[in-house]
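thought: user wants a sequence for this fold. calling inverse folding tool.
action: design(structure=
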């Protein structure tokens, strides 16, 4: 490890420091309309609401949203009390086994910390898309193009990534992420919806489905994380470096284009698809002020994976999509999700890697929509 640190430090010395990019210029390049910004939890969440039946949040309502100190304290206490990282509802189900409740919780009354939520017709199918580590809502461009003629498609930059930027609290635990998604879904007016996630976003998706089965009509996991895994056995060099205290500090100023290019070629099978424009987008958004610090904070504070033991409780129609050539999260993990989630379906893409929805959006979106049509839209109502 010391040799690796020395080599990285020498590279930084020779190449020079690379500072963050101005947020205003990043917003102009990557956050123009239809992007929206939702003040929440001390950050401005970058999100988009597109497609059939989309209902962008009213600006006045969005401006009024802020998280109170009491609410934050309560969430922190709940997160501390639940070691599984899934949240209080999931913890309760672990103590009292049984099928998840299908009763819909009554909507919270509007107030200074919770503006009136926008609504969308109940017959408008809605999907929430969650990206993975060091990515952004742009990873879903192909899916949005395919789905938006018939679906309401909502996507966002998770805290610590993209234009949303870092959490002031620095809490990137699984429980805090699920808490965040709960508040975001309320503000965006998402009543009942499909949730889909890639990699880290996949973990957030299945944890949210465990927390709120009453809100989730379908679940799509794409090369998702969540099972115990030793990163040192993967090719995820950037994540290994971010977890090292000294190197993660150096990464705050290190030139990252080369590392991003190498990482993208690890997660793509067809290197010709790793264009200069793609590398620039990933690199630029990593240089959003605070994002490189957040990546190190997240990596160093990561805890052993828990909560996956409760996956057998899921009663949600679930599709698992996996790139057979994923060297970051191997196919064996996808097969494990298939085994643990009752009634789930697994589609494996022989010639794709860790980001199948980005590398082949046409095929993966087609498969996802066929599944949702068969298992969600055309399925008889649950009794």
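)
observation: tool returned 383 residues.
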């Amino acid at each position: 490890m010391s040799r690796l640190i020395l080599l990285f430090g020498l590279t930084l010395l020779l190449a020079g420091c690379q500072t963050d990019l101005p947020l205003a210029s990043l917003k102009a390049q990557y956050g123009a309309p239809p992007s929206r910004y939702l003040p929440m939890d001390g950050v401005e969440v970058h999100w988009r609401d597109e497609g059939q039946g989309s209902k962008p949040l009213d600006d006045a309502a969005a401006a009024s949203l802020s998280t109170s100190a009491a609410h934050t304290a309560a969430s922190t206490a709940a997160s501390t009390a639940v070691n599984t990282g899934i949240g209080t509802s999931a913890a309760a189900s672990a103590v009292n086994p049984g099928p998840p409740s299908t009763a819909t919780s009554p909507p919270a009354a509007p107030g200074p910390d919770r503006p009136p939520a926008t609504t969308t017709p109940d017959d408008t199918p809605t999907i929430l898309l969650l990206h993975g580590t060091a990515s952004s809502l742009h990873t879903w461009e192909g899916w949005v193009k395919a789905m938006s003629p018939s679906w309401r498609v909502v996507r966002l930059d998770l805290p610590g990534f993209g234009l949303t930027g870092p959490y002031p609290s620095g809490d990137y635990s699984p429980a805090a992420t699920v808490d965040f998604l709960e508040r975001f879904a309320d503000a965006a007016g998402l009543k009942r919806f499909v949730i889909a996630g890639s990699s880290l976003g996949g973990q957030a998706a299945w944890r949210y489905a465990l927390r709120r089965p009453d809100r989730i009509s379908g679940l799509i996991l794409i090369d998702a994380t969540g099972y115990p895994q030793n990163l040192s056995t993967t090719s995820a060099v950037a994540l290994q470096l971010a977890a090292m205290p000294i190197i993660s500090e150096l990464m705050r100023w290190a030139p990252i284009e080369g590392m991003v290019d190498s990482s993208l070629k690890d997660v793509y099978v067809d290197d010709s698809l790793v264009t200069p424009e793609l590398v620039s987008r990933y690199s630029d958004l990593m240089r959003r002020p605070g994002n490189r610090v957040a990546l190190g904070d997240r990596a160093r504070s990561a805890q052993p994976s828990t909560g996956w033991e409760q996956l057998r409780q899921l009663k949600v129609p679930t599709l698992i999509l996996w790139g057979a050539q994923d060297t970051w999260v191997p196919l064996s993990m996808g097969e494990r999700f298939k085994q643990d989630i009752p009634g789930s379906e697994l589609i494996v893409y022989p010639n794709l890697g860790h980001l199948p929805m980005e590398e082949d959006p046409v095929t993966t979106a087609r498969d996802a929509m066929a599944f949702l049509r068969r298992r969600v839209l055309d399925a008889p109502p649950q009794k």
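thought: summarizing for user.
answer: Here is the designed sequence. The first strand starts at residue 35 and ends at 40.
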